[in-house]
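Final report, closing paragraph on structural work. Over the funding period we assembled a curated collection of sequence-structure pairs, and we close with a single example.
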Amino acid sequence: MQGDLQIAEVTSRIFEKSSLPMWVYDPQTLSFLAVNNAVVEYYGYSRAKLLTMTAQQLHVFEDRSNLLDVMLMSPVAAENKMRWRHMKKDGTVVYVEASRFFTYFERERACLVVASDVSEGKKSELLYRMLMDAIPSSVLLLDNDLCVMFANRNFLEKSRQTVDQTVGKRLTEVFPEVIVAGMKLEQQVRSVFRNNQATQGQRLTYRTPGVPIRVYYYSIVPVSWGVRVDHVLFLMDDVTEQTRMSEEIRQMERHLASVVESASDIVLSTDTDGNIMTWNKAVQKTSGYSFEEVKGCPFLKYCNEVNIARFFAQPTARERSCMTESNLKAKDGKYRSVSWVVSQMTNDAGRTVGFVIVGRDLTEQRKFELQIQESQKLTSLGVMARGIAHEIRTPLTIASSAAQFLMESNLSPEFHRECAEKIRGSIQKASNIIENLLRFAHPTTNMNAGPVDLPSVVQGALSVIENQAKVQNIEVRTRLLLERCKILGVSGLLEQVFTNLFLNAMNAMPNGGILDISTERHGGDLLVHVTDSGEGIAPEDLGKIFDPFFTKAAGRGTGLGLSICYSILDQHKGSISVDSRIGKGSTFTVKLPSLPLAKEVKQ
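Its predicted structure, as stored:
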């Protein structure tokens, strides 16, 4: 093959007679195919032993890697010089500079290696080059003519240039002209040669064809002997990823700041001592204070709330967020009601570095709630007024009619007596309505509370409705506690409560049914359950049954019974609740606080 150096010619003319170690190996298996006498003498292995070895076995153990194997196996089209660390048979580590050539051995593709021992100076140069190649920065060594004398591996890889394209070239040939001129690199390098002073780090944006834009920070450092600068180092650090991340962080910070500033809720932060660090527009609008006026001031100066102060002061109180309501002092001296949530800020180590405080101005909400309350009061007043008018109009109409008959002169004594009785009865009914209204407003007026046995009160109310229950074919079942169950209250009023509940339950069962009454203890309370098997209460009416004059039993009551029950129980520090299903019946539960035994004895 023309142009190829045949192995027979190498063997006869150079191979065996060369004083330099030379060997031929298979680039696929890395096995030695031939070695000369210089290899045997230099490495200390016999020729037979070497022919059983592979090329990578000459390298020191720590240099052997997949990368070394790939490099040794890679096709070699021309001379390729490498500097390696080899180990002799006796363990001595030597530095060699090896040149590789493309060749053929026995008509098969092979690689010829010519090695030379590196002198001490060469060894220092090798170590220097290895050191420069290990540096993660891109390094160029420039002389007085601004020519590149050395380029490390990082620069060659980042710039996608070879040694021949870089070493020996001027700065303007290595970098694009637009960068050299725009950054005034030549002037900066000459200034370093002239002044013997390194430049400060500056930013350089560089783009190699086919590669995305990279961002570098570069500096120029003089290399001098005494006062004379012989060379300069041009150092570049790739900060593309850091720049991108910094920009992303800045965008995120701007986004978060925009979110906080745009929030309609109050958002501020403090340091660990509670001094204000940030203050958004919402709190400026609410308080009237600008951030400049409050920066560094204690937050408690504007919201002196006990729970927040405790949260600031006690580390154990910071495990959960603090939620509270308190007034915020405004610049005009007024106070605005605010709902607060205070949380701690922690760093990556979990240490508290400050507090985040989020508030919601409740001023408008309170006004709205007050308007609703006023509206509800007016609505209740209207319902009550209509109820009173309806209930009193009927007996007054009867009394008025009877009075008109009494004005006639030709009445019989019997009819005269009947009219007088109608007037008296109507007046009594109106009086009862007014009395119930007074009981609803002041259920304990002129009555003293004392120890009352609750089961006895329930039994008293049952005796009142016992006959009526038999008439209506209603079965009454009771499960009352046998032990003494004392409460503090008024026996008559409580009996009225249960009588009303029993009568209401019986009215819900016009065709008969079951009335179940039971008592139980629940913690420090006594519960009385009144259950009927009646028609049940519609879901839309459950929220209205305790309103005055609300009734679905037209003509059978005033609608004040449950309202009076609710008021009486409220005065006894108790409560009443209801659970009902249409067609399944209802259960009213009365809860009253039990009187402790010690208090019973004392009474």
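Residues 598-603 have pLDDT under 50 and may be disordered. The longest helix spans residues 363-406. We thank the funder for supporting this effort.
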